[in-house]
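User: Structure please.
Assistant: Input sequence and predicted structure:
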Amino acid sequence: MLAAPLSAVASQPAGVLFQAGLGAQSSVSTIYGGISGNYGNFASVRPALAAGTAARLDILSAVDCSSGTCFLNGDLAYGPLWVQLDAANVSTLEAAALQLIFILSDSTGADTRQVAVPPVFNDLASANWVTSFSETAVDQKPGNPNSNDSSFAVTNLSDQAQSVTVSLYDQQGNLLTQKSTPVLAAGARNGNQVTPGGVYGIDFGSFFGLTTAMLAPAAAVQAGATGTIDGTIRFAASAGQPIAPLVLRTAASSVTSMLVSPLP
């Protein structure tokens, strides 16, 4: 998840200063990553980018460290990745493009996947978001290597604690199921800037337990034809304060980041 407060730095005449660090609510204490192949235990990076240049930031799997030795443990690490872009003027700042790449690698290195994760900018963040989903019913997953498995994570971008109601609708607009996350811790405010607060992430199967029997007749027919339950997912913050959701879908060896759009 990403929040990128924007500010100006008068001492930098050109280009953009790109700073990144992990928020306090990350699910693991150590994440392995870095820039341009120079990887280590990830905390923060501060490369200055002149006009027309770029930097690559890879956020890899969590690592276990003992006796001075660290190794990838293959777990998905989640939490807020907080990014700040600083420039000398607004036009330079608005010309900057930002894209995050997350790489998952198991401990052997044999299974490596990557997915582009879109940033959520603080000044554009909303309390309500919507996207589509495609999920195989939990009773149809066993023995199906190509099942669609969706998951989500949501970060609190507010200085108020709040939970998030997650609602699934079928393609006809019927509510399939609805559930709320635990209360997400408040972020820390520093002037106009709020460092991201609590994060909650889970897969659809564990969170919703969506079965074929839960579907309306029309949705059941559609699921039987396509092998998946398709529809819309909505996120609504209980306190009406900004949040940043992320939705991923895996099918066999592919991982897709779903486009999540803010609602008024």
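DSSP finds three helices and 23 strands in the chain.
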